[in-house]
């Protein structure tokens, strides 16, 4: 039905607004729709604030969050994503995931001054507190949402100083959830034919074979390595100048396969048909890996 992305500075009060919104939407939806609040520090994810202390841990945390989002998105579900979501590229990934399942989207921006965030962060204890250096770094790196771009629209700004979300804002959010425009990839799109019955088997077989080839081919110096997703057909993958570990590669494979399974199950509205041959799967997997490994 819809996906709501919560964004704002760390320690800005996003979780409080998310819980308030969750309660409101549950009351409005009643028994007709499931309303899920996905928080990065929930038991299912358990992402610590310390994950933002270094880029490797943060990247892994975002990957786990995105995988869970993709798993929970459903035409009969209102999903609220409570996380910093401070990178516009990551918000775009969330938007694309929602677009694939043909659900409505909305973005909630919790606007809080940095000094207030610092004060609230000091009141936190243990794993719930950001390190001071990390907090300042996230302030600098934060990319503010804009109603001018499709992946942040419709955009609702909530002020930290309000005791609760204003009733008119709640009503507007509900209208976006219930009646808003469903995002499409582009104009002139048509529904594709169903995936072939062996698409899932081809997906698993091709990605596993390519992953094994990558582990065997890399030597830590980077460069381009040839891969063979199908007999008589090769692809080239640009590797970073480091060894990609098996856990990292396995995690990326799971993310890719999870997203592709959604397409197999629910279909897509991209122009033209999706190629589920070993060649087609291999091309998409290489493109996905190059984007992820070069970050």
TrEMBL record:
Pfam families: KTI12. The keyword Amino-acid biosynthesis does not apply. Keywords: ATP-binding, Nucleotide-binding. One of its GO terms (molecular function) is ATP binding. Gene3D superfamilies: P-loop containing nucleotide triphosphate hydrolases. PANTHER family: PTHR12435. Belongs to the KTI12 family. This is Chromatin associated protein KTI12. It comes from Lentinula raphanica.
